[in-house]
Amino acid sequence: MPVTKFDVMEKYRYLNGFNSYLESEAVPGALPIGHNSPQKPPLGLYAEKLSGTAFTAPRHENKQTWLYRILPACSHPPFTSSLPQSSSTETTAGSSSKQQLHYIPNQLRWDPFDEPSEGEIDFVSGLKLIAGAGDPTLKQGLGIYIFSANSSMSSREAFYSADGDLLIVAQDGCLDIRTEFGWLLVRPMEICVIPRGVRYQVHLVENKPVRGYALELYQGHFTLPELGPIGSNGLANPRDFQCPVACFDEPQPPSSQDGEATEWKITAKFNNGLFVTEQKHSPFDVVGWHGNYFPYKYDLGRFNTIGSISFDHPDPSIFTVLTAPSDHIGTAVADFVIFPPRWLVGEDTFRPPWYHRNTMSEFMGLIQGSYDAKKGGKGGFVAGGASLHNVMSGHGPDAESYEGARNADLKPVKVGGEGNSCAFMFESSFMVGVTDWGLKTCAKVQREYSSHSWGGVKVHWTGETKERNGYLLEE
Ligand SMILES: O=C(O)Cc1cc(O)ccc1O
Ligand SMILES: [Fe+2]
User: How far apart, in whole angstroms, are the C-alpha atoms of residue 52 and residue 61?
Assistant: First the structure.
């Protein structure tokens, strides 16, 4: 697609830094100096503030950006509700604002989700809510999505969500994302975050379909986890987060006979309902911006993994890339955790994850390769599939993985090295419900997940039960 005022090298240039205060100008002089809202901003631009927190949020939490654009975002006719076109879209992000969630204690696992085989499905129509908790109207909770698309959004279309910040995990195929702030190329093993309200469009690269996972945060924002005794570097380092540079469309001359400019379609996700409007000017008209509220991407290959070099399997919190804290310190609304290739050297240690029941819910996906606690292959935990271990649902290695690890020679092993494996987890303090799409429509639930995984766990008990009982009785 044509890129105005912007060559390809420029398109893939980024600004670096997490939560930094950044600025970008596509035309020198677009940003006013020492001033946010002069009487007449430079170059005849409009100044527009985009707030990511309440005006009065404390400085360390305050997020906002000043946009200098050709026309303000408010210049559009009223939105109208976009009704589902067919029953197959009933659980598309927001076609119904009251999607029923089913809360069930069973362990769940899904085969890889289908990439669309027919029709034109773009990022917005291919975004399916699979699980969630809370309510966007109260700014509480989160939504978990699977997306797949076989076509780019129109270059005259933009989407935004008023419901929350969207963390996108690319699993298959690349997403070339145009945002109001500029372009972001997101490849498999990369993630991006599009903040609440930011308008964007998603293109395929070389027409290759895309598939992945996403988490929408109805409350707060992602931040980097504390490092505590790890020190001042490690895990995801701030300079590896990349944000776009400004890029804009110039006003289009009227194209049709009657002098009307071409229409742009804007779709808003608002309380999980979709609303549309059409306007005659490009929403991608931001010539310069400055602030700390912007979309960003991160290459998971840059994650500096820390692990045990003595004994015992540490908590997976050491693999946290981003965390969205709740008001209770240490308890996250959502953590984004990865399991990248790493060396395991623990002595006298059962190396895969232990069996456990967690007060947090654990939704997992697999970007590529395999996961050391679960067998792969058909009916296993496979790239593009998912699992959900809800609050207090017992889980751990399947019987086969347990026996393997119990008898393994404990020499140093690079886990996940062969397939450059990377599983991830959306861990939340909320109990999450599963949608009808997740339970039925997608038709990917593995009915035998629990029995295949744990039906065959063996008794290894070596205590002498009878004699012990006898002893206890004599006492
Ligand atoms: O359940 C899982 O597979 C995820 C997980 C991994 C780990 O190393 C420790 C705890 C945990 O929940
Ligand atoms: Fe777990």
Answer: 9
Q: Is 371 annotated as a binding residue?
A: yes
Q: Is 372 in the pocket of ligand 1 (CB under 6 A)?
A: no
- Domain count across the chain: 2
**Does the ipTM surpass 0.90?**
yes
Give per-residue pLDDT as tens, 191-209: 999 999 999 999 999 999 9
Relative to beta strand 157-161, strand 264-270 is parallel
* Residue 388 Cβ contacting ligand 1 at under 6 Å: no
Residues 355 and 215 in one domain: no
134 & 204 share domain? yes
State both tokens at 206: 């070389």
Report the distance separating Cα 275 and Cα 286, nearest Å: 23
Residues with CB under 5 A from ligand 2 (ion): 362
Catalytic residues: 313
Q: What is the pLDDT of residue 471?
A: 55
Which atom from ligand 1 is nearest to the alpha carbon of 358? 12
CA of 224 to the centre of ligand 2 (A): 21
Among positive and negative, which fits the CA dihedral 71, 72, 75, 80?
positive
Range of the domain at 428: 304-454
Question: Which residue, 441, 161, 126, is CA-closest to 273?
Answer: 161
